[in-house]
Amino acid sequence: MTDTGPDGYGLGLVAAALGPAQSGFAHSGAIPGYTSTMAIDPASGDTLIILTNNDKLTADLLAPQVLAGA
Predict the structure, then answer these.
(1) At the N or C end, where does the chain have fewer CB atoms within 10 A?
(2) What residue segments make up the domains of the chain, in order of their start?
């Protein structure tokens, strides 16, 4: 799953920048009324999961803020 090809996509995971010098993997999704994202730092094992029930408050945009401590 973590062997990403030239497009950065693996088997359900995509290579993701989790911070200025931190890379990992992520997967996001949405259905009307809900958004979700999951990110993992394989070096530390830290995992972030966000689920919202609001189309205007998207999980993809929240994740970097949470990781930055905002």
Answers:
(1) C
(2) 14-68
Express each pLDDT in 21-57 by its tens digit. Answer: 778 898 999 999 999 999 888 888 888 999 999 888 8
Q: Find, among 35, 31, 40, 65, the residue nearest to 50 by Cα.
A: 35
pTM of this structure: 0.75
Burial class of 45 by CB neighbour count within 10 A (0 to 12, 13 to 18, 19+): exposed
Per the listing, tokens 């088997």 go with 11
DSSP letter (8 states) at residue 25: E
- C-alpha distances (whole Å) from 36 to each of 10, 21, 32, 43 are 18, 24, 11, 23
DSSP of 52-70: ES-TTS-HHHHHHHHHHT-
